Amino acid sequence: MNTGVFIREEEVMILDSGWAWFYSNLGLFEAGLLHSSQKAGRAKMSSAQSFIFALTRSGYSGLLIMSMEDKEQQVLLHISQAQGTFAFYVTVVYAKCDENLRVVLWDELRDSAGRINGPWGVVGDFNVSTSPKEKVGGSHIGWWFLWAPFTWSDNRDPPNTIWKRLDRLAYNEEWFDLFGGTTVTHLSRTCSDHAPLLIKCGIPVNDHISYFKFLKMWVKHEDHLNIIQQSWSKEVQGNSLYVLPQKTKKVCKTLSVWSRSTFGDIYEKLMRLEKLIKDLEDEATINDNQEIRTKISCAKAEFNNFLKLQDSVLKQKARIKWLTERDANTAYFHGVIKYRRKKISILKIKNDEGTWVEGTNDVAGAAVQFFQKLFSAENTIEDSQVLSVVKKVVSDADNETLTAIPTLQKVKNSTFSIKPDSAPGPDGLSAKFYQNAWNIIGYDVHKAVKAFFNGATLPRFITHTCLIMLPKVNSPQQFSDIRPISLCNVFSKIIAKLINARLSTILPRIISLNQSELSPLIKVALSREGI
């Protein structure tokens, strides 16, 4: 959904008839506009001696726009629907060129931030860049991007051209909650030295599928190991590489059911307890007695307990590792989670042909096409006869060491060497689960590892990975700006670490002197969990 709003401040020399002809040809309609001291319709802006028009597409005729403030460098608007579907604030900025004069604008925006309660976006020409990366040319040396982030140019002939990013959109968390699919496109500079900003305020469709994920807060509950024991001990017929995935599926389902019955909806319970505490305190002001005070104390204790659980869940989602157990900042965790989701979301990108694609299905299809082509190798004919002249450096004893069946203690050491808070794979089980429940699941894990080293093929349940697209730059424009990483299941990491430990003793002898540059690279690769 797009709000379909087009807001423009009209210069006094443009005639009403010409402007009306312009926006009617665009299929736009004038929306109801209110000034703080004027009636509905066109609002005269006293400071600039101009008019502001708000135009909407067909279907948004019930849009109401109120001018809340009219300052020299910014105008604050309140935009809402007559039906009350949504409401938000927009500050349109046209900053001064002098940095001393812009101080007034920054103070006004700080004041607005303290007063505005709700979705708020600030957009316009700020006449300043936020970092050296946002300027190229002139006396200052900037950083050239593969994409075009610049919105202003002095239009000089090369090589004296200066490019800057002076225009932008910034918004608060409430705006992100309402318009999570917001995108900003820099259009071409045809009639100005500034590029127009095309802003799409899409309301995201909640089509996210919730997958199982092992929560660290379960470990602190006294019954969690008993729940795992009851589920894991149920007999499953088949080979060890079939038994392990089946038991894993069962324990995940059992933990989900147990969590819902034991903890319930943490966020809903916090709101309910907060209301209960307020009601009890109101009652205590009228009829204060020991029974009510006891109820208040119990409710506060339960509230604090669920507050700690919420912080644990949010800290795990945010993956903040430097905070201590005593630190609690729910707003900060929410901000980190939203930033991560925003960073990895791809709403619009260029395909192989250089055409922009939008929408989940089109972007996913273009991504599959690009990376399949990138990671597909052409058929080559290899002549293995050249290997006959290569000196043999791996002895029979080395081969026996590489293929030896790992002991239970070796598998346990490999399991406990994985970071407990590392990102889980598709099964949702982190290394924390394996380490905490090792006395229950260790025997079956060891049997599955032995089956692999005996030559058994790993099933898809184990080899499946979650593919995550991490942007290399702030605003990726094409798939070459994105680095894909695979999140594999912990069992795959266990096997990888066992192989890593064995290869690390042999690789120095395999790498020849003229390949010495590969040695540090291989060491880094082997140290990664998902090798």
Structure description:
With 531 residues, the protein is of the alpha+beta class. Among the domains are: 5-128 and 166-202, no CATH class; 393-527, no CATH class. The chain has 17 helices and 19 strands. It has a 6-stranded mixed β-sheet.
How much of the sequence lies in strands comes to 15-25%
- Biggest β-sheet: strands ordered side by side in the sheet: 3-6-7-8-9-13
Q: What best-fitting shape do the alpha-carbon axes yield?
A: flat
Gyration radius, rounded = 31 Å
Helical run tally: 17
Helix content estimate: 40-55%
β-strand number? 19
Give the low-pLDDT segments.
1-16, 26-50, 138-147, 526-531
Main sheet specs: 6 strands, mixed
pLDDT average, as an integer? Answer: 76
SS-based class: alpha+beta
The N- and C-terminal alpha carbons lie at a distance of: 42 Å
